[in-house]
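Sorry to interrupt, but I need a hand with the structure work. Could you write out one complete protein record for me, on any chain you like? Just paste the record in under my message, thanks.

. . .
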Amino acid sequence: MMLRYRTCPQPNLCGKENMQAQTCAKKKCDGSGYAVKIAWTAWGSWGPCSASCVSGVRYRYRACKKGESLSFSCPGTSNMLDYCNQFECSEAQNAPPSPMFSLESKAVAHLCMMATTKVFWVFGDFNGDGNMDLMCGSQFGEFEIGLGTTSGNVKGASWKGRLQGCGGHSSGQIRVGDFNGDGQSDIVCTDRIKRKTTVRLSNHGRFEDDGFVGSFCTGDADFLIVLDLNGDEKSDLLCRHSTDYEVLLNRFMS
């Protein structure tokens, strides 16, 4: 509101109106009394096209802002439509999408046919050829490895042997990791009865010497996790106790 005034040199002769008012700011005000601008934001980027051919559409959007808040008082619309990929589909584009998975019958060798013993399995690239291999073992420390092929098959047992300190699930845990950074999967075993932790290094799918022997993560409630914690491409050990965690960084393979 704007106001203006006038004075009369002879009050008895002038009229009664000595003030005139006029409306000025028609914008809405915020709580401080200042005018708040209401306007559209800039248009956003175009979204993806809904089709790869023939009849695709895409949208872009804008928002109506009242100061820093959203508003619904702006004239016009908040979205804009555009037609895209308006051309005939090729034969390949008309074909249905390929399934993510396909069911195939693959030959898996008979491994660890050990009578009257509990058998468990672990997976890794034990010879470093890029194919997934299978290792099976018994609770008495008897192990076999079947090497995988590029076609998804698993060959017969390429190695059999006993791994001292790796007694299987009945008395501990067994995990897979690359502890010396040579690209071949090694194994680490814990024995809760003997309170012993053993790392066995793979030599092209054969296990011979111990890499580390200690007593890490051998409690009855402990859970062993293998991962590369410091990014040096060598597996470290993480032990989850009942109330906290303990870390063993891979220093013994340096």
Remarks:
- Residues 144 and 160 are 4 Å apart (CA to CA).
